[in-house]
């Protein structure tokens, strides 16, 4: 997509934190220059990207001279700065609910999904590489806490109690989502909103990653919601930018309800 909007998005796969501003831009119909960074190749720690985001994390977005970081804050900026369908409800109570869900997901639920993802996908994807080369890549990471996360992922040394706590939070989060989606069509209001975009980026692979907890029998409302978001043209366009097997996992949502 070529950008007449002056927006460049630096992103990895169309999921998790990268997927949030990607999907918001597609929903708003904002053309942007897509700059794919391969997280597994440590592209996010190379000097040309650190010149844009010195923290060395993805995503980042530039709009003219402005450099924006933090995926949820970028989504809110995109919604405010560009025309197109509003993704934050005008009604105060609905807007509060959108922000409640985004806070809950970003602070409490997403780190648990992330820990599980890093232990089952990111770590195993890079573990077979030359240890000296990996160590040099880790030394270049600007944020100490990200160095710790990479070391844990590579060694597979996520403490069992931390993994158990992450699994507990994911199970609880699934329960909250199912309950909310039993009350209304979308997560936070009667209209599709940033809360749905945020939630989809966490939960799209639940029927694959947590099949005993999330499926058509146990969580029919989550499954209805995931399939409805996946069917949106913006979601299809967004996920077409994925390059790895991880992005292909979303096609589980093409299955018919059981
Ligand atoms: N709170 C930030 C988190 C950004 C973040 O940590 N992104 C991860 C990918 S989802 C990352 O860049 N990891 C790269 C690394 O740790 O090397 C946001 O929401 O944008």
TrEMBL record:
Question: Which InterPro entries does this one have?
Answer: Glutathione-S-Trfase_C-like, Glutathione-S-Trfase_C_sf, Glutathione_S-Trfase, Glutathione_S-Trfase_N, GST_C, Thioredoxin-like_sf
Q: Which residues form the GST C-terminal domain?
A: 91-253
Please give one Pfam family short name. GST_N
Which CDD domains is this protein grouped with? GST_N_family
Q: Which PROSITE patterns match?
A: GST_CTER, GST_NTER
Q: Which Gene3D superfamilies match?
A: 1.20.1050.10, Glutaredoxin
Instruction: Identify the residues that the record assigns to the GST N-terminal domain, covering every copy.
Output: 5-86
Task: Tell me which SUPFAM superfamilies the record gives.
Answer: GST C-terminal domain-like, Thioredoxin-like
Q: Per the similarity annotation, which family is this?
A: Belongs to the GST superfamily.
Q: State what protein this is by name.
A: Glutathione S-transferase family protein
What organism is listed for this UniProt entry?
A: Sphingomonas lycopersici
At the highest ranks, the source species' classification is:
Bacteria, Pseudomonadati, Pseudomonadota, Alphaproteobacteria, Sphingomonadales
């Amino acid at each position: 997509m070529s950008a007449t909007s002056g927006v460049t998005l630096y992103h990895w796969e169309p999921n998790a934190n990268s997927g949030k501003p990607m999907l918001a831009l597609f929903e708003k119909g904002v053309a942007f220059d897509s700059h794919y960074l391969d997280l597994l190749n440590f592209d996010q720690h190379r000097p040309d990207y650190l010149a844009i985001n010195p923290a060395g994390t993805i995503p980042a977005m530039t709009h003219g001279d402005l450099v924006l970081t933090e995926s949820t804050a970028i989504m809110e900026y995109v919604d405010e700065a560009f025309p197109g369908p509003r993704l934050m409800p005008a009604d105060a109570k609905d807007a509060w609910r959108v922000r409640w869900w985004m806070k809950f997901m970003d602070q409490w639920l997403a780190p648990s999904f992330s820990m599980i993802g890093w232990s089952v996908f990111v770590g195993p994807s890079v573990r077979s590489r030359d240890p000296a080369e990996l160590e040099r890549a880790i030394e270049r990471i600007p944020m100490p806490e990200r160095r710790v996360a990479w070391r844990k992922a590579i060694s597979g040394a996520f403490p069992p109690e931390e993994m158990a706590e992450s699994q507990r939070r994911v199970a609880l989060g699934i329960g909250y989502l199912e309950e909310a989606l039993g009350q209304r069509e979308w997560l936070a209001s009667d209209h599709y909103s940033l809360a749905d975009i945020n939630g989809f980026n966490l939960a799209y692979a639940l029927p694959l990653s947590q099949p005993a907890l999330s499926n058509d029998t146990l969580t029919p409302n989550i499954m209805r919601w995931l399939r409805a978001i996946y069917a949106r043209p913006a979601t299809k366009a967004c996920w077409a930018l994925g390059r790895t097997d991880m992005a292909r996992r979303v096609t589980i949502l093409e299955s018919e309800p059981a």
